[in-house]
Amino acid sequence: MKLERRDRSAGECRLYWLAAQTYEVVNGLNKFVVDLSAHECSCRKWQLSSIPCTHAISCINFKGLDIDAFVDDCYKKPAYVKCYDSVINPLNVPDLWEKTNFDDVMPPPYRKPSHRPVKKRKRGPDKAPDSSQSHLSRRGQIQRCSNCGESRHKRGGFKKSSDKRIIYTLFGIVFSMFLVCFS
Question: Which residues are listed as membrane-spanning (predicted)?
């Protein structure tokens, strides 16, 4: 799949022969050096994946060679078959296992945490803290009471029997009477 995709885009490259197996490949504004004998390209995709890059495929097609010969053996079927060639033998039930003089291996003890489980993931010390866009910080702002407007407390700490509450209530009544009289 990856090889087919690279083969399609290899037609966009222009080739310039440099030496026996070395080419300069121009792809748009970029220039790359491809060495077919060393299986190297200056874009380094061929070295990293062991699959010829677009630039290498354009050189291979120009020489009329088989692309599959330049793909690493680990991507071919014999390597895949060799990985799964060994047999995993089945085991008997634990009661029929051979007894040894060594202690049995036990799992580590499970300790139930005494606190509520943490749902937010822990970030590493080298990671920056998550700046969430859904929560705005009130840090640096002066918080005021919505009833009286003072900055010493908020609405929950407002004393309802204080003199200021009565003054503000009287002021509101007088102001509303003032509006009624002049309208």
Answer: 165-182
